[in-house]
């Protein structure tokens, strides 16, 4: 891509079609027509067009505004990539593929796609901190509402055996591709929710909104082993009490507040609801 391009714009007050015909005969570059202005952009200089245009205007006795500029090119892909930053959360470093790894961190490679979960949101980063603290090697973990798969990948990097589910099929596809980007394996995945879980887990993590967490509370507890850990997030402070009440039969281990978002970590002391 060149550093510069050239832009010629022509705004005839009359004989618009004749000017358009002339420019079409002069160039093979694309011509843009917008509100009476004809514009040509090219990586090649367009200076040679000025003389014929001026002569044409004179011959027609037409009034015509002509502007010619050299402009700096914008690398849109680079601009987009620069707008996406890596984020450090505890021992994790979440980064897109075009940002260099940090050798001293647990790198999570997540390329931004359609699914939620880049690590920048407070709920995701709080869950990452909880995973770092409460997930151990060989734990069986279920990520409910996996989105991009970021939490499941973090757990897999800590040596957990991970299952994922999401009600949105696109998220499962996105999770699969992010797992292969990270050279990690999903043990089992399904489209749907926690009610379809076929076993109990050492750790269940669910970063979904408060209303849904309350609605599926019994299924979340059922999927967590006795003595297992349940990590809940996606809860706005105004819903904190309601969610705490719904899970009051569990032992509260930790509550993380980040801005207006709350993340709760419980131990399942009964093994079921
Ligand atoms: C806020 S995103 C969380 C993504 C990722 N786990 C993270 O922490 O960044 C919530 C995800 O939950 C999914 N979801 C919503 N309701 C669900 C339900 N009842 N069961 C399972 N997944 C659900 C959504 O499709 C979405 O991908």
TrEMBL record:
Pfam families: PrmA. Coiled coil: none annotated. GO terms for biological process: methylation. Keywords: Cytoplasm, Methyltransferase, Ribonucleoprotein, Ribosomal protein, S-adenosyl-L-methionine, Transferase. The keyword Transferase applies. Its EC number is 2.1.1.-. S-adenosyl-L-methionine binds at residues 124, 145, 166, 207. It is found in: Cytoplasm. The keyword Cell inner membrane does not apply. It catalyses: L-lysyl-[protein] + 3 S-adenosyl-L-methionine = N(6),N(6),N(6)-trimethyl-L-lysyl-[protein] + 3 S-adenosyl-L-homocysteine + 3 H(+). InterPro entries: Ribosomal_L11_MeTrfase_PrmA, Ribosomal_PrmA_MeTrfase, SAM-dependent_MTases_sf. Methylates ribosomal protein L11. Belongs to the methyltransferase superfamily. PrmA family. This is Ribosomal protein L11 methyltransferase. The lineage of its organism: Bacteria, Pseudomonadati, Campylobacterota, Epsilonproteobacteria, Campylobacterales.
């Amino acid at each position: 891509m060149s550093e510069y391009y050239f832009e010629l714009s022509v705004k005839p007050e009359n004989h618009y079609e004749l000017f358009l015909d002339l420019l079409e005969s002069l160039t093979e570059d694309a011509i843009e027509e917008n509100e009476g202005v004809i514009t040509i952009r090219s990586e090649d200089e367009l200076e040679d067009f000025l003389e014929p245009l001026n002569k044409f205007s004179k011959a027609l006795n037409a009034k015509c505004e002509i502007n010619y500029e050299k402009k700096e090119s914008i690398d849109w892909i680079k601009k987009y990539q620069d707008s996406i930053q890596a984020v450090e959360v505890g021992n994790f470093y979440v980064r897109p593929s075009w940002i260099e790894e940090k050798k001293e961190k647990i790198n999570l490679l997540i390329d931004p796609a359609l699914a939620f979960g880049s690590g920048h949101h407070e709920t995701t980063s709080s869950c990452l901190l909880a995973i770092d603290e409460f997930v151990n090697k060989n734990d069986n973990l279920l990520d409910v509402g996996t989105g991009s798969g970021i939490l499941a990948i973090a757990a897999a990097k800590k040596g957990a055996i991970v299952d994922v589910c999401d009600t949105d099929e696109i998220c499962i596809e996105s999770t699969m591709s992010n797992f292969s980007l990270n050279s990690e394996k999903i043990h089992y995945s399904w489209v749907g929710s926690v009610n379809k879980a076929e076993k109990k887990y050492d750790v269940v993590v669910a970063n979904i909104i408060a209303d849904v967490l309350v609605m599926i509370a019994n299924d979340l507890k059922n999927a967590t082993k006795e003595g297992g850990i349940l990590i809940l997030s996606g809860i706005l402070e105004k819903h904190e009490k309601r969610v705490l009440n719904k899970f009051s039969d569990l032992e509260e281990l930790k509550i993380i507040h980040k801005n207006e978002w709350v993340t709760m970590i419980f131990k399942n002391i009964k093994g079921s609801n």
